[in-house]
Structures are given as structure tokens and as C-alpha cells.
Amino acid sequence: MPLTPSHIRKSLPTLIQLTLGAVLAALSVETFLAPNNLFDGGVVGISMILSHLTGFSLGLLNIVLNLPFLLIGLRELGRKFVLKASYSMLVFSLCTMQFEHLSHATNDTLLATAFGGVLLGIGVGLVLRGGGCLDGTEVVGILVNRRAGISTGTVVLLINVGVYGAAGFLFGPNQGMYSLIMYFIGARVIDMVEMGGISTKAVMIVTENGKAIADQIYLRLGRTVTYIPAHGYVSAEAKDMLYCVITRAEVFELKEILAEVPGSSFATVSEVSEVIGQHITTDEAVELAMASHYSATDN
């Protein structure tokens, strides 16, 4: 599909958000974290450790190590997500190369931990809010969440514990513990930037076109939807009410679904502290959606 001025105008705010987030994250890494031997989590953290040990460029290592995760994401999560993730990672990596020679913001480890975590959290939060990501471990977290029901945050945290353990072993326990504190500060800021406190979100949608929205949620997010017939209080018109539970990384895609499906609709997104019980698997959800779609087409 060729790009039109309308498409460009629609995509420009998201592109700016992804760019700004990646630049801020790179600035945090090169001016606060790396000079003080503090490490981010995930692939970025592994790249930072390898850069310290080998002298190779952090940006180049980050691109090489993230490439396999992007290829996995292309098959499992779709082209749109991977394009945004690839763009964000490329901007982040190029900026780390450019910022390598900037003067250190501070040599105080505690200040670097606090301010570096805040700046990194703002950057990563902006990228996630724009529908991208800076780290391949987030791709792993989303896939494990969809297939095993383990929250994205838990998967990423387990990976990061290993990264920080390695950092503590190689550079001393103090650096590992400071890095872990920085991670928790950054994670909280990410939640604040994204306008949500935790990974899991409950969504309530009131719409005139519930069938189409439910099908798209099945197909694109792999999420089951509870369908509740309803009526407007003033108009007394029949409405569809949909309820589903998604991860914070899927909120952006849900917004796009609501914008694309015709008809009036609005949604509320709230925090979920815990999910209890069995969920339909992603593969089962997609199969049901496809069967429903083709059944409606045949009729």
C-alpha cells in the first residue's frame, strides 16, 4: 500500500515518540550508566557488559544481539510491531555511538543510579507507548505471556536477574546492586509514562460493532473476549459490551483496532493486580476467530 499524505500525518506523532524515546534512553546509557559501570537489563545490559569486556561498540553489539529476536517477532508478532521495534532499536544504537564521547553527567554512583534510571524509564516508556520496544527480551516476554500465561514483566525480570547477577560477578556486587536499583526506578517510571501501573490491563469496550472488534482482538492479539449485550440508558439503543484482559504492550494495538473498526465505540482500561483461572491459548483464539470469520463470509 503506497504512503499517502494522510498516512504520513497519522504516523508522524508515533515516529516522533519512538525517536524521542530512543534518544533519551541512549543519552541515559552513555552519560549516566556506562561511565559508572551501571547496567540496563536484557539485551541492552548484555551488550553493555560485552562492550566493557571487549571494547566493541555498544551500539553495534546491541544491533547484532537483537537481530534474532526481531526475526522471531516478525513471524510471531507481525510486521508492524517489528518495524517499530527495529526503528527504535536502530535509533537507540546509532545514538549510543554518537553519544560515546559526551562528558559524564556525574561520577557519583548514587546520582547516576537515580537520574539514569529516571531518564531511561522515560525513554523506554515513550517507545513502548508508541508501540515499539528497545530490547529483544520484551519480545520474548510477550511471546511467553501469550503462550504460557506468565506475565511479560515476570519474564523480563527473571532475565534481568541473570544479567545483574553477571554484572555483579564481573564488576563487583556493589555495581550489580546499584544496577538492580536503577532497574526498579526505571520500571516504575516506565509505568508512569505509559499511564499504567502494571503489565496486565482489563479492558471494557462499549461499541456498536462488537462482533468486528472481537474478531480483530482474536486475530491480532490472540485474546479471548467476553461478550455482554447491553442498552444505552438515554437512547435505549442496543450496544455490545466486550471485556478482555491484555498486556500493556498490547494496549497500542487495541487502540488501533478501535480506530479502524467502523461505528461508535469507547473503552476503559484499568489495572489488574492478579489474573486467576485458565485462559484460552493464543492458537485456540486465532483458530476460533478464523472459523468465525469464514463462517460469516460463507453466510
Description:
The chain is 66% helix and 10% strand. It folds into 2 domains: 5-193, no CATH class; 200-298, Alpha-Beta Plaits (2-Layer Sandwich). A 4-stranded antiparallel beta sheet has the order 2-3-1-4, covered by helices on one side. A hairpin with a 6-residue loop joins β2 (226-231) and β3 (238-247). By secondary structure, it is an alpha+beta fold. It has helices at 5-33, 42-54, 58-76, 79-99, 109-129, 136-148, 152-171, 173-193, 210-221, 251-260, 282-298, and strands at 200-207, 226-231, 238-247, 265-271. Residues 280-299 have low confidence and may be disordered. It is elongated, with a radius of gyration of 21 Å. The chain has 11 helices and 4 strands; from the N terminus they run ααααααααβαββαβα.
